[in-house]
Amino acid sequence: MDKLKLNIGLAGIVFLIGLAAFQFLRMENVHEVITPVVSAEKDFTTMSAAGDSAGGQTLKVYFAGDGSESSKRLNENLSQGLHYGKVPYEHLSVDEISELEPSPFHVLVLGGENSKAWPYKEVEAFVEKGGRLIFASRFNDQAWYDLAGIEETYGFSSEPSYGFTFHSAIFPGYGELGSDTPFAVNSTLEVSLKENANTLISSEEQPVLWSNLYGEGKVFFWNTTMLESKNLRGLFLHSIGLAVPAFVTGQAAVQVIFIDDFPSPVPAGSSSPVKEQYGLSIADFYKKIWWEDMKAWSEKYGLKYTSPFIGTYRSDMELSVDDMIKKARRHMTFYGRELLEAEGEIGFHGYNHQSLVTEAEPADPSLGYRPWKDQDEMEEGLKRAKAFFEHFYPNQQLKSYVPPSNIINETGIAALQNIMPDIETVASLYVADADKGYFGQEFEFDEKYENLYHFPRITSRYNFHPEDEFVQTDAIANFGVVSHFFHPDDVLDEHRAGDKGWPELKADFEKNLKKLAGTYPWLEPLTMKDARNKLIKYQEAELEVAYSADSIEISGQNILNPSHLIVRVQEGKRLETGNHPYGQVSQLEDETGLYLVKLTRPQAKLLIKEW
Domain 60-243 in CATH: superfamily? Predict the structure, then answer.
């Protein structure tokens, strides 16, 4: 009898403990009892060389235009790519071309179509004596045919050509773009080339990039108008590497994956793709399928997600802070905590999903968004969003902001700085339609707010198309940056999902993750706040490179430790792979002359050897 009473008593205690635990987990303020994990910001160390500078020839690229606005835009775009890649450059006037010293490490880039503006005799002499020349846009002028390697022309194409076919390995990851792609649209000059010209890229059998030997020098001709695009900066950068005896460019080695609108209110009910494939509500699909896959990717590929949250999807200001807290307790607590435990970052997206613009500022009308009355109304929304976040995560700071639909303007940035001064980064788009209000950015500090850094996103969605792969590869080729975003509800949207269900979308994106991990293992997965800090240090570092016939000497000031460089040597030459006192050398692809150099010391001498 006593034993029975004891068992009943123990059962009662267990029941009461279980009930208490259940009630505890249902508490509105569980976050105040169990403090959310805080991830320390990653520390990126730097190193500096002491003593004499490297000895040898210095590579430099010189840009000259034809006086037109289009050539100015072209040269500014291409030189920005060189700036990212840490390749020295200078803008020249046409009159200064005659002062250039011919050298295989001096590259003259002529941008524009008005060839009459350029001094032919001086340019020819520069190339004939060993200089390198790149025409950055197609033009038709018979006086330049011989220098450019053109046998005959048949005028400008009446119709554009589409796609790219690569006939030479320029950088790992560039794949063929078929003629059905809407991305690579080439306005070309129809040509036949001289026998000694070498076609490197073509489009529907029309040469787009070729090289031509002339005297002691080399000439490269870009038969397109596409180089005004940011998405060809990396390709242009590495075409310079093909022109010179040896070539060194920098890699920031940064990979950022954003999950936009997360955590956010979860739609009620189900959707056709989810219901048909899983028989689940949207909420259960997110929790049991989608989020589990996100965590699996994080563990397998080391991803550290940055997830900007949304308070509400209402377009008005009706919800108070308390209203939002009551509606968001479960998803903000569960997903936010698990994100932080996976070393991710919670960023800020908005009080609601209305872009921070007034009626006087542009916004894509097709989105149907409600403009904010003024900055005061914006700031009230931001105050509520800040209080909402601090309720759940009192020990966290919001450092990163993603504009809803990538639209923001001066009023919104001012409001953001007033109410959330801890925001250090705005992440919008690398390429954007400014006329519709989309906020296009470079990787740089804001001109007005000195601590605010711009870190645009370059690619998006789960289902990668060939043009997405090209754009991603080009940014890596340029300076080693992946900046990608998607949304939890992309799978629910037939347009964004491309009529694919989650199993197909998951397979598509994992294929890309495998490619990134296998082809570019030096890219470091980081949160937005850490990527910002690393990229700033990369940009502020000074890299000095000196070239000679048998070596490349590198000397750095305040360069990252480790630092990553891409090095190309000309055909028939090689670097010794393996471990060295200064770091490590790895060949990127067989017989391409491309190497990854990982520096763990600020000075290095790379010996160039014969095959």
Answer: Class I glutamine amidotransferase (GATase) domain (3.40.50.880)
